[in-house]
Write a structure and sequence with these properties.
- Its EC number is 7.4.2.9.
- One of its GO terms (cellular component) is plasma membrane.
- The structure is a single chain.
- By secondary structure, this protein is an alpha/beta fold.
- The chain has a domain of 197 residues: 3-Layer(aba) Sandwich (Rossmann fold).
- Helix content is 34%, strand content 23%.
- The protein has 13 helices and twelve strands.
- It has an eight-stranded mixed β-sheet with strand order 6-7-8-3-9-10-12-11, sandwiched between helices. Strands 2-1-4-5 form a four-stranded antiparallel β-sheet, covered by helices on one side.
C-alpha cells in the first residue's frame, strides 16, 4: 500500500455563473522515501493539488470528488481536529515565500517551539533544544543566535532553511515543497535543493516537489507528473520522460530549456498561454497550442495510453503506439 494515494481528485471553485474545475480526475501515489515531481506552467493546477491534500483549499474552492488516502485513511473525510494531527506532524509543507509563512513579530525560536508544543508534550527547554538541532541539520551558521532573531534579520536563503527546519521538526513522513526556491538566486537554489534531497534520503522522507523547473526535477525526483489545465497529461519515471517525452506539451517544456537552444538565438517557446479556468477548450485542452492537433483533439478528451513505463493522455501518441503494434503483412 502506498503511503499517500490520490484517486480521481476533482477540485472546483463555486463562482457566479457555475463551478470552475481546477483539477480533473487527478490520480497518483507516493511511496515512503520516494521523490515525486509536479511540473507545468503557472495555472496548471500544481499548487491546488498540493493544497488539496491537506484540505487547505480556500473558499470558494471545494472537493467535488475523489479520495486522498494517507496510510489507507481518507484525509478528505477527516474532521478538522483529526487533520490537525496530520498537518505539520505527519505531512509537512514548505511554501513558496518564507516571509509569508513566518510570523514577522515572533522570533524564529518562538515559532519553532510553538510548532513543537502544538503537537507534542514538551517543556519549552526541550522544544528549544530540538529546534536548535534542526537548525544545525539545515546548516544554518550560528544556530543558537538565529533562534533569537526575527525573520527580517535573516537572508532569503536562511529564511528558507528555517522553513525546512520547521518542516522537519516533527519528523514527518511526507514533505510537500511548493516552489521552495522561487525567490532565491541560482547558487542558493542549488544549495537548498541539495540540502532538501540529502535530508529526505537520510530520514527516508517522501518528497512531493512542485516546480516549473525541469532541470531541478531531473536532478531531484524519481517520478514526475506533468500537469496542464488541471489534468495530468504525462506521468512516469523522471529519466524516461526527460530523455524521451511523449506528450507535445512535455516536449515543448523541455525544448524551452536554455540549454536546448543555440547560443545567440532566441529560446524555443510554446505558442500561446495556459487557458483560464472559465475558458478551458473542448477536447484536449492543449490542442490550441499543439502543432499536431487534429479534429479528434478538438472534440474528444484523450484517455491515457501506456508508452513503456509512461502514461500519456494524447490521441496522436495512441495512434503511433497502435500503428507499431499492428501485425505487418508478409508477402510470399
Amino acid at each position: 500500500m502506498a503511503l499517500l494515494e490520490v484517486n480521481n481528485l476533482d477540485i472546483r471553485f463555486a463562482v457566479r455563473g457555475g463551478d470552475l474545475r481546477a483539477l480533473r480526475e487527478i490520480s497518483f501515489s507516493l511511496d515512503r522515501g520516494e521523490r515525486l515531481g509536479l511540473v507545468g506552467e503557472s495555472g496548471a493546477g500544481k499548487s491546488v493539488a498540493a493544497f488539496s491534500i491537506l484540505n487547505l483549499t480556500a473558499q470558494p474552492g471545494y472537493l467535488a470528488g475523489g479520495q486522498i488516502l494517507f496510510e489507507g485513511r481518507d484525509l478528505a473525510a477527516m474532521s478538522e481536529r483529526e487533520l490537525r494531527k496530520i498537518r505539520g506532524n505527519r505531512i509537512a509543507m514548505i511554501f513558496q515565500d518564507p516571509m509569508m509563512t513566518l510570523n514577522p513579530v515572533l522570533t524564529v525560536g518562538t515559532q519553532m517551539v510553538e510548532a513543537l508544543q502544538s503537537h507534542r508534550r514538551l517543556s519549552r527547554r526541550a522544544a528549544r533544544q530540538i529546534a536548535l538541532d534542526r537548525l544545525k541539520q539545515v546548516q544554518i551558521p550560528s544556530p543558537d543566535k538565529r533562534l533569537d532573531q526575527y525573520p527580517h534579520e535573516l537572508s532569503g536563503g536562511m529564511r528558507q532553511r528555517v522553513i525546512i527546519a520547521i518542516a522537519l521538526l516533527l519528523d514527518p513522513d511526507v514533505i510537500i515543497a511548493d516552489e521552495p526556491t522561487t525567490a532565491l538566486d541560482v547558487t542558493i537554489q542549488a544549495e537548498i535543493m541539495a540540502l532538501l534531497l540529502d535530508l529526505c534520503e537520510q530520514r527516508n522522507v517522501a518528497l512531493m516537489l512542485i516546480t516549473h523547473d525541469l532541470g531541478v526535477v531531473s536532478q531531484v525526483t524519481q517520478r514526475m507528473l506533468v500537469m496542464y489545465a488541471g489534468r495530468i497529461i504525462e506521468q512516469g519515471p523522471t529519466k524516461e520522460i526527460i530523455n524521451d517525452a511523449q506528450h507535445p506539451y512535455t516536449q515543448g517544456l523541455i525544448n524551452a530549456l536554455p540549454q536546448m537552444g543555440d547560443p545567440g538565438h532566441r529560446l524555443h517557446q510554446i505558442p500561446g498561454a495556459m487557458p483560464s479556468l472559465n475558458r478551458i477548450p473542448s477536447g484536449c485542452p492543449f490542442h490550441p497550442r499543439c502543432q499536431f492537433a487534429t479534429d479528434q483533439c478538438r472534440t474528444d478528451m484523450p484517455d491515457y495510453v501506456a508508452s513503456g513505463n509512461v502514461d500519456v493522455a494524447c490521441h496522436e501518441v495512441r495512434k503511433l503506439i497502435e500503428a507499431d503494434t499492428q501485425p505487418r503483412e508478409t508477402h510470399s
